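Entry:
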Amino acid sequence: MTSNEKNFYSQIGQISIGFSNLESQIKELIYILIKSENEFVSSILLEDNSISQNLKLLLKLSKFHEIEEEKIRGLHNSIDKIRINRNLFIHGLWSFKEDEDGLVFICEIRKVTFKKVSSGFVKYLNNFLTFKSEDFEEELLQIKNCSKIAKEIIEDIEEN
């Protein structure tokens, strides 16, 4: 394995772990706002939720309790933007190529899409997106920023 490949896998791993920790912080915020004395009940309520479902629930709970609404709405919007790339980074089919600007990472998305044209539909099977190492670094930075905001919200709520 080349050093570029090791760097790529390291970045994808950091994104995966960072996002997982961020998801855990979102659940912690929900647990605090549910105000259940029983951690098992809270866990049961959230165990099958996607991050999108938990973000929507967090928005509703913050509005209901009138706690940190603006910060939580901003956090929701920021996480929602990075969630799409995170899923792509984790579930995409990856390959690499070298071009004049350095190493390019190619993510293949295997999904059938249909485009309506005048004579019917055109079917597309795969879509290819390209990324540079800097794109992964930017994603990780955004995850860290969201995690920092989530931590601040948790601390603010716990202090009050």
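The two ends are 51 Å apart (CA to CA).
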